[in-house]
Write a structure and sequence with these properties.
There is one protein chain. With 150 residues, the chain is an all-alpha fold. It folds into 2 domains: 110 residues, no CATH class; 33 residues. The protein is built from 7 helices and no strands. Helix 1 packs antiparallel against helix 2, helix 1 crosses helix 5 and helix 2 packs across helix 3. The longest helix is centred in the C-terminal third of the chain and has 29 residues. The N and C termini lie far apart (55 Å). 12% of the residues are buried. Keywords: Membrane, Transmembrane, Transmembrane helix. This is DUF340 domain-containing protein.
Length: 150
Amino acid sequence: MLKNIQEWIMVLLIVGAITLVGNWVGYNVMPVEAIPGILVLIAISLVGLILGKMIPVQIPAVAYISLIAIIVSIPGVPGSEQVVKWTSNVNMLAICTPILAYAGIAIGRSWADFRKLGWRSIIVGMCVLLGTYLGSAVIAEIILRWQGII
C-alpha cells in the first residue's frame, strides 16, 4: 500500500505541475495564486485513492474523490469558503490537459492491441465523435431557442 501511495503522490505532483503551467499559459493565472488550489485538489485526490483501497466495498476511487470534494466545498463546512476560493484559481481545462495526455500515453503503450482492432474501430470512433458533437449542437440549439437567445 505504501508503494501505491508513493506512486500516487508522484503522479499527482506531476499532474499538478503540468496543470500549474497550463493554468499560467492558457488562463494567465500566476502559479503562486494557483498552488493552494492545486494542493487542495491533490490532497482530495490522494485521500479518495486511499479510501478506495482501504474500504472493502468495490466502489471506484473517483466516487470517493467526488464525495470528499463535495463535502469540503459545501457552504457551512468549516474551511469550505477557503477551499472554494483556492480551487477557483485552477481552471478546469488546465486540469484536463495532463489527464488527456496521460490517457494518450496509456493508449500509445498498447498500440499493438489498438492495431488489432483494425480500421473499423477508427470509423466507429469518428462516428461516436460526430454523434456526440451533433447531439450537443442540437441540445444547445434547442436550449438557446427556448431561452430566446437565438
